[in-house]
Design a protein that fits this description.
526 residues; ACT-like_dom_sf; D-3-phosphoglycerate dehydrogenase; PGDH; alpha/beta; binds nicotinamide-adenine-dinucleotide; Rossmann fold; 6-stranded mixed beta sheet; amino-acid biosynthesis; binds 3-phosphoglyceric acid; phosphoglycerate dehydrogenase activity
Length: 526
Amino acid sequence: MPKVLISDQMSPKAAEIFRARGIEVDEITGLTKDELIKIIGHYDGLAVRSATKATKDVIAAATNLKVIGRAGIGVDNVDIPSASGAGIVVMNTPFGNSITTAEHAIALMFALARQLPEADASTQAGKWEKNRFMGVELTAKTLGLIGAGNIGSIVADRALGLKMKVIAFDPFLTPERAEIMGVTKVSLDELLAQADFITLHTPLTDSTRNILSAENLAKTKPGVRIINCARGGLIDEAALKAGLDSGHIGGAALDVFVEEPAKASPLFNTPNFISTPHLGASTDEAQVNVAIQVAEQMSDFLLTGGVTNALNVPSLSAEEAPRLRPYMQLAERLGSLVGQLVTEGVKGVTVEVEGAAAQLNIKPITAAVLAGLMRTHSDTVNMVNAPYLAREREIEIAEVRHDRETDYHTLVRVTVKTPDGDRTVAGTLFGMTKPRLTEIFGITVEADLSGRMLYIVNEDKPGFIGRLGGALGEAGVNIGTFHLGRRNTGSEAILLLSVDDTIPDPLLASICRLPGVKTVKALTFA
Ligand SMILES: NC(=O)c1ccc[n+]([C@@H]2O[C@H](COP(=O)([O-])OP(=O)(O)OC[C@H]3O[C@@H](n4cnc5c(N)ncnc54)[C@H](O)[C@@H]3O)[C@@H](O)[C@H]2O)c1
Ligand SMILES: O=C(O)[C@H](O)COP(=O)(O)O
């Protein structure tokens, strides 16, 4: 039974779903890094929000971990390259808390416009400072969105409802999408110059870090009010403090900080500054949404292989998974076959699908080919990390879907480009479930690829099979199955035998010395 650790505060719905699906769950929050490292090896899945840091060290200790699920959007607390390298799927729940976070941004915009926290504190202190808190209307003001994805779009929709004009800077926003959203696409400088309110809704990346730098803050309209419910690090906090102190910035509301938890910040107690402790996603509705979603996604993956919202592996629905599984097995074996037979450096891999296979999601098939191919050289390769390792090794990957009639109902063909030329193998599924080799390096050979096998290329001359059988028999090696193919009569033949025992090296050497033998290779398939 798979075992999952929930290491951050999460709606009880998550644990309920795991248990209902037959998965064992431990809920242990507030773990230190060392405590997490000590126990993570026991788990197949780790469910987190933003408090748990799934760092390189944690991942190195996670010897059984297969999936990390983020109940929320931002995955900057998960070292994805390390997870990919370790073959761990990382998934998030990209929409479950979007409305809630957008509403928090709008709430902070109202709070800034009317200085609600300060007015509240003053009133409750018995001061009744009616003249001190003069606000501004939102109607007809310009809201500048930096980032117009899921959350930015919802903020735009709500702001348009408030009769604001909305402009957006987002390099990936198409003019068509901007029109549908009812916003004007602008450059960053135009946004800085025009916006009365600026709200940030981008991830923290190299291109967004300090996007509101001292230089950019200086380009904003005097009195601008700024909201950040996305990620700490998008705004230069020292420059923001200076802008608030000088009065150039009329107000700022931060839900997120460079250092979290932010227990001491120079921004605290600055006039016109509002803060909340990373509450963007904190509503009952959003937390139930993300908890249900993460638990369903992780359970699907652990129980059926279905992949949804993964950041480091192609998606594969729970319905697709059972149909694709035999193909992935076939693909993995074809990859493994070429991986074991091709010794020269692999420069490229082409995966072609024909017949029924051409109707399927090709990405997982390719990932399985690469996993099989590279597993020959590494025990830690799997479908998750194989495409990354291939890219790292500068292996060119191509995928081709054929629409033509074939001899087989369904076919997967793998061609590996090597310095000595292309090497192609192909296979089909018997009864749509059983992987079966159909072609090896241009020669038709039908065989199961499983267990221990012996691959031999020899001159197609009489007497060879008898001599080979004799050599194996004398060494006490039992032949399970025997498959034969040849290019032309009397030319080159290929023999694929399944054998019950490991073939010792001296026996391989003596088979190599049999007259007419060109190549001998012992193969193993999972
Ligand atoms: N405060 C919270 O509790 C909370 C809750 C949910 C999400 N978030 C954060 O909000 C952010 C946005 O979430 P989302 O769901 O809208 O993400 P999203 O991926 O749907 O949208 C992000 C947008 O940013 C744009 N973008 C990327 N680089 C950019 C750049 N250099 N300049 C301008 N735009 C750029 C992208 O094109 C995209 O449209 C994420 O960082 C997420 O982690 C915070
Ligand atoms: O990216 C997110 O989803 C938010 O930052 C929410 O984080 P939280 O789950 O820790 O509240």
